[in-house]
TrEMBL record:
It catalyses: L-homocysteine + L-serine = L,L-cystathionine + H2O. It comes from Pseudonocardia asaccharolytica DSM 44247 = NBRC 16224. Pathway: Amino-acid biosynthesis; L-cysteine biosynthesis; L-cysteine from L-homocysteine and L-serine: step 1/2. This is Cystathionine beta-synthase. Belongs to the cysteine synthase/cystathionine beta-synthase family. The chain holds residues 1 to 341 of 460 of the full protein.
């Protein structure tokens, strides 16, 4: 019989898929690492185990303890999966702009979710930051992983994501492209790839226009999970050879193309990273294209965004699509005739 003891044992070892139609006309090989195939549905499953194990080893997290983290999604799922297995309680703090569906996913895994108003100053006692700090102080046995400052976040990618990519490409990877949120993924994976290749692998960050990593001031953007308005300690400022800023419009258009043309139903930060990867691949000089292997990491799946990037009305509201009421029967029949492109 072939089985594992727990779903969390299946984290990692995600596959690489070659991009076809969206990479048409590009000679370099472009491969996507599909992280939504992790059991909790995102790259963040990878950091939960190491952060928890390190806190157990240091005594910060004791049996029966409570994990308190400000998170609205992917990291919460990864932590909740492990917490359930190990008998910890989870309390996640979310701003009220986070959709109900995402909060319900966390609750479905058994976590408690505290919702805070978005429209208050960070120093207000009800803010997302202050509330999580207060819960950590007041709950007996509480521990906060703090993914923005926890060295186990990049360390888990150095230990696993990087070696996986090196083995899967048989050492032929030449460029690694990823978005930057906490910076854990790109810093850990990128550092491993640079170490193992003697500095040959180029590391390229993808960033929403407006975020600090590509020189912005923290101006708002709609792509979720990437970009920041501050510099977290989990991001290694030396790791990127280049950072490419991508607009929301380009990110969302590519996200929709990935679903339609590659059957990859992924989140908006994936579209953003693919736009950057294709720019990198297209810029490879012709004489080096045959030997160039560009790998782009796709952090999560698209089901958490059905009301946003995959919703025509939402896209139209932000000006990314013309106003639409959806297709009529006539539209569908005419399209079949080829009369609508
Ligand atoms: N995309 C999504 C959807 C995410 O949730 C995250 C994590 N915040 C990232 C990209 C970036 O990953 P990292 O925090 O490791 O930089």
């Amino acid at each position: 019989m072939r089985y594992v003891e727990h779903i969390a044992d299946l984290v990692g070892n995600t596959p690489l898929v070659r991009l076809g139609s969206v990479a048409a006309g590009i000679s370099a090989t472009v491969l996507a690492k599909v992280e939504y195939l992790n059991p909790g549905g995102s790259v963040k499953d990878r950091i939960a185990a190491r952060m928890i194990e390190a806190a157990e080893a240091s005594g910060e997290l004791k049996p029966g303890g409570t994990i308190v983290e400000p998170t609205s999604g992917n990291t919460g799922v990864g932590l909740a999966m492990l917490a359930q297995r190990k008998g910890y309680r989870c309390v996640f703090v979310c701003p009220d702009k986070v959709g109900e569906d995402k909060r319900n996913v966390l609750k479905a895994y058994g976590a408690e979710v505290v919702v805070c108003p978005t429209a208050v100053d960070p120093d207000h006692p009800d803010s997302y930051y202050k509330t999580s700090d207060r819960l950590v102080t007041e709950i007996d046995g509480a521990w906060k992983p703090n993914q923005y400052a926890n060295p186990e976040n990049p360390a888990s990618h150095y230990a696993a994501t990087g070696p996986e990519l090196w083995e899967q490409t048989e050492g032929r990877i030449t460029h690694y492209v990823a978005g930057i949120g906490t910076g854990g993924t790109i810093s850990g994976t990128g550092r491993y790839l640079k170490d193992v290749s003697g500095g040959r692998v180029k590391v390229i960050g993808a960033d929403p226009e407006g975020s600090v990593y590509s020189g912005g001031s923290g101006r708002p953007y709609l792509v979720e999970g990437v970009g920041e308005d501050f510099w977290p300690s989990t991001y290694d400022k030396e790791i990127c050879d280049e950072i490419i800023a991508v607009s929301d419009a380009d990110s969302f258009e590519m996200t929709r193309r990935l679903a339609r043309e590659e059957a990859l139903l992924v989140g908006g930060s994936c579209g953003m990273a693919v736009v950057a990867a294709l720019r990198v691949a297209a810029a490879v000089p012709a004489e080096r294209a045959a030997d160039s292997v560009v790998v782009v990491l796709l952090p999560d799946g698209g089901r958490g965004y059905l009301g946003k990037v995959f919703n025509d009305r939402w896209m139209a509201r932000y000006g990314f699509l013309p106003p639409t009421e959806g297709a009529t029967v006539d539209d569908v029949l005419r399209r079949k005739d080829g009369s609508i492109p």
